[in-house]
Each structure stands twice: as C-alpha cells, then as structure tokens.
Recover the amino acids of this structure.
C-alpha cells in the first residue's frame, strides 16, 4: 500500500494518505474506505505473513481542515513466530496533513493492536512525520513507547519515545517507485536497510520487489536473504 509520500507500507493505509493530501481542497468532511489483497504482507523489508496472502481494509474520516482519523485491519500483522503463526492487526490513527507551496506534509500517531498476542490500543504506537515534494519523499517513524518487557513473552524491553526509529527516502515517477528504508534501533547491532522497487502497470495493481541490502549481526534479517516479490491490488469503496 502507498501513502501520501509514495511510500510502501508500511504502516498507514492508502486511503488515509490520499485523504491527507486532498484535505485542503475538500469542501466538507468525508468518509472513505478501501479494500486490498496482496500475495504477502511486506512490512519494512520483511514478510510478516509467513508467505501467505494478506487481506486488508480501511475506513477513514477526513475534515476540510486536513485533520483525519481512521482504522486499518489486516488478516496478518506480525513476524512469524517459532510455531509459524502470525497475529491479525488492527491499526488506529489520527493526524493532520496538507500542502503548501508544492511541499506536502503530514504528522500522525498510529497505535497497533494484535489481539492474539494481547497487545491493546495505546500499548504500542508510532509518531510519523513526513515531507514530500514532486516525486520525492522522506518519512520518519518513531516508536512512541512500548511498556511491556521480556517477561511477558513478547521479547521486548521497556522503550521510551524515540528509542527505535525507521526512516524512508522515496521517489516516484509515473508508474515506478523507489524506496530506501532503514531501521535505527536503540539496541546495538540490530539495524538494517532495505530497498523496494515497485511498478503499477494499471491503476490499483502494484508489483513490488524488496531486498535487504545491509544488516547488523542481530538484525533478524540478513542481506543474504533472497528478494521478496509481492503482487497487490487495492480499490476504494
């Protein structure tokens, strides 16, 4: 899925992104939605759906001032565990976006809910800051806190705002897209960088290839891994 700055997921549904760009031109509040299917859930250079197809949908509310809020639901949403399972994902988000002098901007907060792993709204979230001009984009995702710890079985420790960050730089030209994404973890030797190339031959249909190109020793992914190929189709409702 793409957002206002031409980025791959990552983490906000395409309907939200489109709404945030168009908000200054909308005469009144608007409700919109989308449905999508993909051959896998590609998230920041990783397959988090165990190689299975992923179905998703969104519902969004946008005001004429550029404020928006919504939810995005996915049939998969976490990395594969030792038993080969994943959890469904429901995201709730709110933000403000617009454009001034050819510069698009967006700031939002998103919280991730994984019911099968008892992760509720407000427990895990990110603050997202984005800028775009022409076909170029830059977006920073910063964890807004994660209070659970390893004793709960989720493998994380207490994190505060800004401990873990994910930065993307992207460019889109006609039907083609290019994205570089880099994880910058607070923990040592866990960073990695991936590159995504995408092509949309017809409206709503996108082919993407993603490859990890650099990884630290404990990143969880390595640059030796084969590229990931994803086919996705989405449409507004």
């Amino acid at each position: 899925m793409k957002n206002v700055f031409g980025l791959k997921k990552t983490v906000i549904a395409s309907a939200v992104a489109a709404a945030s760009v168009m908000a200054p031109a909308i005469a009144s509040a608007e409700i919109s939605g989308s449905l999508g299917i993909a051959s896998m859930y590609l998230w920041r250079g990783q397959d988090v759906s165990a190689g299975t197809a992923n179905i998703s949908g969104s519902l969004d509310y946008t005001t004429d001032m550029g404020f928006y809020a919504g939810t995005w639901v996915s049939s998969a949403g976490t990395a594969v565990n030792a038993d080969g399972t994943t959890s469904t994902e429901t995201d709730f988000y709110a933000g403000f976006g617009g454009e001034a002098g050819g510069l698009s901007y967006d700031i939002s907060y998103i919280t991730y809910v994984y019911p099968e792993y008892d992760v509720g709204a407000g427990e895990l979230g990110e603050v997202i800051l984005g800028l775009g001009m022409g076909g170029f984009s830059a977006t920073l995702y910063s964890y807004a806190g994660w209070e659970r710890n390893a004793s709960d079985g989720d493998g994380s420790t207490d994190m505060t705002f800004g401990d873990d960050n994910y930065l993307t730089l992207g460019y889109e030209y006609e039907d083609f897209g290019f994205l570089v994404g880099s994880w910058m973890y607070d923990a040592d030797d866990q960073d990695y960088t991936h590159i995504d190339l995408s092509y949309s031959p017809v409206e709503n249909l996108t082919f993407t290839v993603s490859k990890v190109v650099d990884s630290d020793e404990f990143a969880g992914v390595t640059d030796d891994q084969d590229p990931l190929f994803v086919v996705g189709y989405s449409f507004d409702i």
User: Anything to note?
Assistant: DSSP finds one helix and 14 strands in the chain. The chain has one domain: 14-236. The first strand starts at residue 30 and ends at 38. The CA atoms of residues 152 and 229 lie 34 Å apart.
